[in-house]
Amino acid sequence: MPARWVSALTRLALWLAVAVVLGGVFGAMSWWLSGALALYLAYTLNRLYHLDQVLQGRKGYGLAGTTGLWAELFGRVDSFQVKAKRRKKKYNQLLREIRESTGALHDAGIILNPDREIVWFNKAAVRLLGLDRSKDVGQRIDNLVRHPDFIAYLEAGGEPVTIPSPVDGEGRLAVQVIPYGSGQSLTIIQDVTRQTLLERSRRDFVANASHELRSPLTVISGYLDAMAEEPELQPQWGKPIGEMNRQTERMMALVEELIELSRLESSEGDAERELVKVPELLRILCQEYDASPDSPAVKLELESDAALLGNEAAVQSIFRNLLSNAVRFTASTGEVVISWRSDSDGAECTVSDTGIGIPEEAIPRVTERFFRVDPGRGRPAGGTGLGLAIVKHALQRHGGSLSISSTLGEGSSFTCRFPADRVVHRGG
Ligand code: ADP
């Protein structure tokens, strides 16, 4: 038993012993004992009353005149209160610092509860989204920011989205939602207006420069054709003119692809929804590539007659680029298979070849502009380095995706997947 309890019980025993002695000397023992117990009870109740007042934080109550067990109890309560005060002060200080630092952030931060209601937001959220502290705390965020891309992102997650600013028509905001705890989330909103404008001017510059190059190249190509056909041309000019012609054609192909890529990058929103008869399109493309004697065999496997709702030129460009790559990077003894299938989740086109393959570390990079696995090997075969970048962008505009698998020396497989809402099943 702890010493303080031994001492408290000893005191009670002594108190009762005094009552017994006085009862023995003066008689009426039970009165003496009852009196002693009543006094002890009164003292205990008085201490309890003081303790209750101390716990309620009242001033003027406490240790005065207290000894033994009660002194220790009061001491402990006092030290708990001092600690709690210190902790409260520390948390208040921390909270102030968090408020000040989040207030100084350029990015908006909004805390949402599991029902997507706003719990808290910083100063930047007032500036970027026009939120109002007096009205908007407790409101659902999708009632205040109503852009469909944002709502779809809130519901389905996925890649962060960029939306127009609700307070400034020209502004663009990048939104990212970070879930935490049990259903809460932190929404971070960044002003990307400047980056968007820079990106747009870079795209415009490339598109304009490409357009400007088109006419002079056409003129040069025309003159070179005429010179090549000139009967009086001295024989030593035959080779240089042929080479100039090839290089001009390469530049023209590059300019055309740059224009196509800029057009895809700058078109806002989803691709159109024209009916694209994929099986027919693939048949024509296969015939084009199967005709050349230096090409590998091109096989078409049509497992579906589904059509697509999309932009016909873009869909054609996707398949043409994949097929042209497969043929270019496969020996004439190899084989290229292009297949088309569909199910309730959508449709997919796979172009597989038994060609040179792509090293594993290069696979994630092949859709970058001008990326070539081996800069020497794409060029002589007529590539521009833009084909797969065009495929990726054209697919994105159709809500689709590209997946690539390849084994070096064995072949590659490129699969384009189109979402179900773009697929039209025909003939039942
Ligand atoms: P390129 O005009 O150079 O073909 P692409 O963007 O179409 O440009 O392709 C980028 C690079 O990816 C190519 O240079 C090549 O290294 C690699 N690649 C693309 N398709 C294939 C394929 N079917 N087999 C092997 N390598 C490929």
Explain what this protein looks like in three dimensions:
The protein has 428 residues and is of the alpha+beta class. It is 52% helix and 18% strand. The chain has helices at residues 3-26, 29-55, 68-104, 123-129, 133-136, 141-144, 148-156, 193-229, 238-266, 278-290, 312-328, 375-378, 387-397, and strands spanning 108-112, 118-121, 161-164, 172-180, 184-191, 274-276, 297-302, 307-310, 335-343, 346-353, 401-407, 411-419, 423-424. It has a five-stranded antiparallel β-sheet, with helices on both faces. Helix 1 runs antiparallel to helix 2 (29-55) and helix 8 runs antiparallel to helix 9 (238-266). The model has no long low-confidence stretch (mean pLDDT 91). Bound molecules: adenosine-5'-diphosphate. Adenosine-5'-diphosphate (ADP) is lined by residues 321, 325-326, 329, 353, 355-358, 366, 371-373, 378, 383-389, 412. Adenosine-5'-diphosphate binds at residues 321, 325-326, 329, 353, 355-358, 366, 371-373, 378, 383-389, 412.
Descriptive tags:
428 residues; alpha+beta; five-stranded antiparallel β-sheet; five-stranded mixed β-sheet; 13 helices; elongated; binds adenosine-5'-diphosphate
Blueprint of the fold:
Elements: H1 3-26, H2 29-55, H3 68-104, E1 108-112, E2 118-121, H4 123-129, H5 133-136, H6 141-144, H7 148-156, E3 161-164, E4 172-180, E5 184-191, H8 193-229, H9 238-266, E6 274-276, H10 278-290, E7 297-302, E8 307-310, H11 312-328, E9 335-343, E10 346-353, H12 375-378, H13 387-397, E11 401-407, E12 411-419, E13 423-424
Parallel strand pairs: 7-9
Antiparallel strand pairs: 1-2, 1-5, 3-4, 4-5, 6-8, 8-13, 9-10, 10-12, 11-12
Bound molecules: adenosine-5'-diphosphate.
Adenosine-5'-diphosphate binds at residues 321, 325-326, 329, 353, 355-358, 366, 371-373, 378, 383-389, 412.
